Amino acid sequence: MSGEGADAMDEPRPATYWHLARAVLYREYLIFVRYPANAVGAIVVTLFFFGVLFVGGRMLAGPALADSIEGIVVGYFLWTLSVGAYSAVSNDIGSEVQWGTLERHVMTPFGFAPVALFKGAAKVVRTFVISSVVLAAMLLITGTSLSLNVGTVLVVATLSVCSVLGLGFAAGGLAVLYKRIGNWLNLLQFGFVVLVSAPALDAPWLAVFPLAHGSELLQRAMVDGTRLWEFPLTDLALLVAVAGVYLGAGYAVFQLATRRARRLGVLGDY
């Protein structure tokens, strides 16, 4: 091999977004397999709370619970997805602040916000894996059967979670600025219960809030067996619009908060 050819091979190549996506996905995979006790613990804790909800509901409501158990399973599935995506982004950024590793993301050729966005997407993938296991366990526990058209469930659930991901970015931006606000961030998770169970069908104005419209469509997909192409275009357009608006707004808040933190010189402070 000629000297010029060897020099060309040794010359560092610029990193692309494909390399970034592959790296953050591989990082999530390593965290998942190298800390299996933590991953299993998340599943056990989630199922424990569902068991309390299921057993307590049977004791209080008796046979009446059987009429709504499918909706409860779907709602709990979407809630676990939402909490996983939201807390993964906001807590991860808060942890980076505490560890003092936040500046490393700023120094990457992509910038801090794109790295955080790709890491958030990777965490959503991991959350889908864990929530799918939880869903299978819930179906076994309750003896319920649902329509699981993978394509429809994946599209509707992903778009529903995107709005929550935007809230996670906004919360992460506030964590960069104000540091210890974990109690406020955790409080929002309980609000997801209200949004998932919001009667968007009876009160259409609720559909503009995160999760409300997505929860309704996911119920129709998994309980009634409605396929993606069977939904009215207006419903799908509203789902996409809500996901895009909240994700874009949350991402913008995150960028503004990190820029302000850099101007104030508190980005790496803790």
From TrEMBL:
Q: What is the protein name given in its UniProt record? A: ABC transporter permease
- Keyword hit for Heme: no
What residue intervals traverse the membrane? 35-55, 128-148, 154-178, 190-213, 233-254
Keyword check for Transmembrane, yes or no: yes
Q: Which InterPro entries match?
A: Nod_factor_ABC_transporter
Keyword annotations of the record: Membrane, Transmembrane, Transmembrane helix
